[in-house]
Amino acid sequence: MYLMKERRIRMDDAWEVIVVGGGPAGCAAAISAAREGAKTLLIEATGCLGGMGTSGLIPSWCPFSDREKVIYGGIAEKVFNASKSGIPHVKKDDVDWVPIDPELLKRVYDDMVVEAGVTVLFNTFLSAVDTDGDGNVNAIIASNKSGLTAYRAKVYVDCTGDADLAAWAGAEYR
């Protein structure tokens, strides 16, 4: 067992919404919160946004239609249209199995979160969740090159893909 002397962790409580995970769901959640006027922090473990479409190199979008009309709207449709517009061989009305250019998609997500006013921390890992014992999150602790920092917000959104924040807060899972 290794014992460390007690130390303090800096608290950053300037946020109304903190989203953990910068894949499609996390980007949409952060963009939506910021558009509604919430001071929003997006914490992403990797060096780019977009999740499996960028870092995972998934080659194409699943169908965006029911073969008659587009069935995904809002932010998802905006991301989809912006990303396919940069691929010359894709027609404007293509909606099924459209290829993904991961570098273009990274820029699409970057532009959208910046435009919405979201602050992003890249290469930052969720390291712990502090709760009140009843499952309510008091703060999260994240780590990056700056060391450990505690972050507090009114609302936390878990878009980690593995429900890390929810599980560490005590949520039931299987």
Fold blueprint:
Blueprint: E1 10-12, E2 17-20, H1 24-35, E3 40-43, H2 74-85, H3 102-116, E4 119-121, E5 125-131, E6 137-144, E7 147-151, E8 155-158, H4 164-168
Parallel strand pairs: 1-7, 2-3, 2-8, 3-4
Antiparallel strand pairs: 5-6, 6-7
Summarize the structure.
The protein is of the alpha/beta class and 174 residues long.
In DSSP terms (H or I, runs of 4 or more residues), the helix count works out at 4
Alpha-beta classification:
alpha/beta
Q: pLDDT under 50 segments (min length 5)?
A: none
Order of helices and strands: EEHEHHEEEEEH
Q: What would the principal axes of the Cα set say about the shape?
A: elongated
Q: What does the main sheet amount to? A: 4 strands, mixed
Question: How does this model look, in words?
Answer:
This protein is of the alpha/beta class. It contains 4 helices and 8 strands; from the N terminus they run E-E-H-E-H-H-E-E-E-E-E-H. It has a 4-stranded mixed beta sheet with strand order 1-7-6-5. The protein has a 4-stranded parallel beta sheet with strand order 4-3-2-8. The longest helix is centred in the middle third of the chain and has 15 residues. It is elongated. The two termini are 30 Å apart. The mean pLDDT is 94.
Give a quick set of tags describing it:
single chain, 174 residues, alpha/beta, four-stranded mixed sheet, four-stranded parallel sheet, 4 helices, 25% helix, 22% strand
